[in-house]
Design a protein that fits this description.
It is a single chain. By secondary structure, the protein is mainly α. Helices cover 67% and strands 0% of the residues. The chain has 2 domains: 96 residues, Rna Polymerase Sigma Factor, Chain: A; 76 residues, Winged helix-like DNA-binding domain superfamily/Winged helix DNA-binding domain (Arc Repressor Mutant, subunit A). Helix 4 runs antiparallel to helix 5 and helix 7 packs across helix 9. The radius of gyration is 19 Å and the shape is elongated.
Length: 213
């Protein structure tokens, strides 16, 4: 596939010209926004507004991380809600020497994988039944073809084993580095690089299968 996975799927997790942490447009000049660690410390001291700011900062990206793994909006929302609950309950475990977002992504990813392992087969059958192929004289640049491409990407991703699907989603759709992914999935950099290589091969094979069905 000549385009990246994210481009092919039509998914843009972080809008262009926006800061991924604050979500502000490129031209905006925030006045010394508090760091994630500062917001966590304030939350621990009883400042609920600080935690709300942290949720606002990461809720959207957390949703897309969960959705790209699960393929279900309601399940993704449940995962995000549970992830923030776990953050709130375990703030004392956060090591301020490390980035908050990798710790948080690990929580979101682990929860999503748990959901995926228990519901993957049922969700795949339901998804295939709900998204019957749209055919018949459609121009290549039409919205219907674009939707079909997204659907095929989704189906191909669903065919990957969870450990390969996870690295594929975090790297190709969320733009995280292999080192960051290694921290999130509690693995080594070398292992993640190998999984990424393997995941791309498996995805190409799966995509070819779903597009000829």
């Amino acid at each position: 596939m000549p385009l990246t996975l994210a481009q092919t799927a039509g998914w843009n997790v972080v809008p262009e010209n926006r800061d991924p942490a604050t979500g502000l447009a490129g031209g905006a000049q925030p006045t010394a926004p508090p760091t994630d660690a500062a917001l966590l410390r304030a939350t621990s001291a009883g400042d609920r507004e600080a935690f709300r700011l942290l949720v606002d900062r990461y809720e959207r990206r957390a949703f897309w991380a969960a959705f790209h793994l699960l393929g279900d909006e309601e399940e993704a929302r449940d995962v995000v809600q549970e992830a923030f609950v776990r953050v709130y309950r375990s703030m004392d475990r956060f090591d301020e020497r490390r980035p908050f977002y990798t710790w948080f992504y690990r929580i979101v990813t682990n929860l999503a994988i748990d959901h995926l392992r228990h519901m993957r087969l049922t969700r795949r059958i339901a998804s295939e039944e709900a998204t019957e192929s749209l055919t018949g004289g459609v121009a290549p640049s039409s919205p219907i073809e674009s939707n079909e491409t997204r659907r095929n990407v989704r189906r191909a991703l669903d065919l990957l084993p969870p450990k390969f699907k996870t690295v594929m989603v975090l790297r190709e759709l969320h733009g995280l580095s292999c080192k960051e992914i290694a921290t999130i999935v509690s693995s080594t950099h070398a292992t993640v690089r190998w999984r990424m290589h393997r995941a791309r091969k498996l995805f190409r094979e799966a995509y070819e299968r779903v597009t000829v069905q």
